[in-house]
Design brief:
The relative contact order is 0.08. It is globular, with a radius of gyration of 21 Å. The N and C termini lie far apart (70 Å). It is built from eight helices and no strands.
């Protein structure tokens, strides 16, 4: 009988640990550090785990995109800023940085980063799309429409062009 009680107690302990683990997993999934974003897609990424010491630009980019995709925008911002220091003329980095800043509530800094992206590479469609998106969310409709029209003009049939048209029609 003692063995049966021990097995039963062990089973209850394991079940309790599993329940606590599921609770923590669900809670963290629903109340992470960053905002719940449903109106805009993250930039494409290649799923690879990030190493603690990231030195080369490619590893930084992969880790930053992984953080962005996982909605860990604060961590992504840190890596995007490091990438911008390594290559201050990379418009794509400023575009991604701007969107991550916006998602953490730093929309004015986001506008500056996105504006810089469009200056560095006026043909970077996703920068114009993100710039218009952030401006729209700030209620700056006229400059937002200009940015979104620019995104459409660059390639109306691309995914970004279609998304820009959709934002213009809302």
């Amino acid at each position: 009988m003692d063995d049966e009680k021990r097995r039963s107690a062990g089973f209850v302990a394991v079940a309790a640990l599993i329940a606590v683990g599921i609770f923590i997993w669900v809670r963290n999934g629903l109340t992470g550090e960053d905002a719940d974003i449903t109106s805009y897609r993250a930039p494409a990424s290649t799923p690879v785990s990030s190493a603690p010491q990231i030195e080369d630009r490619r590893s930084l980019a992969v880790a930053a995109e992984n953080h962005f995709t996982a909605r860990r925008f604060t961590a992504a911002i840190e890596l995007y800023r490091k990438m911008a220091e390594l290559d201050p003329k990379d418009a794509a980095v400023y575009s991604d940085l701007g969107l991550a800043l916006h998602y953490t509530g730093q929309s004015e800094q986001a506008v500056e980063a996105l504006k810089k992206a469009t200056v560095l590479d006026p043909k970077l469609q996703r920068a114009w799309l993100s710039y218009g998106f952030v401006l729209l969310s700030l209620g700056r409709d006229a400059p937002a429409r200009t940015a979104l029209n620019r995104a459409v003009a660059l390639d109306p049939s691309s995914a970004q062009g279609v998304e820009a048209k959709s934002m213009l029609n809302r």
